[in-house]
Amino acid sequence: MLHTRHRRDSLTWQVAIITPVIHYCMGGLEIDTDSACVDASGKAIPGLYAAGEVAGGVHGNNRLGGNSLLDCVVFGRVAGKAAAKYMLGDKTKSMDLKELSGGGLAADKEAPASKL
């Protein structure tokens, strides 16, 4: 498709070639609530986990704009936790994100006293 734009008050033409692209995949592997991939009968496949665009069916037939990053973060954490439990069993432990990040967000810390 060729798109053109012409301004009536000038002789400027802007031309761009527009082609179809995929910005988000709405298909993929079916997962359960632990992000484990399931087979055709709906049974979890041991040790196989998926998250993000590779996992289909999380949003149904369509997704709300802006939800893909949230989808990747939430199901990425779920898949990571389930995969760790699968590999390590009872040796896994919970980790506080504040501790992991080195103290939390900058807004959580006291602001330094002003030098003015």
UniProtKB/TrEMBL annotation:
Keyword annotations from UniProtKB, A to Z: Flavoprotein, Oxidoreductase
A family per Pfam: FAD_binding_2
UniProt superkingdom: Eukaryota
Gene Ontology molecular-function annotations: oxidoreductase activity
FAD-dependent oxidoreductase 2 FAD-binding domain mapped to chain residues: 12-69
PANTHER family: FUMARATE REDUCTASE
Protein name: Osm1 protein
Source species: Symbiodinium necroappetens
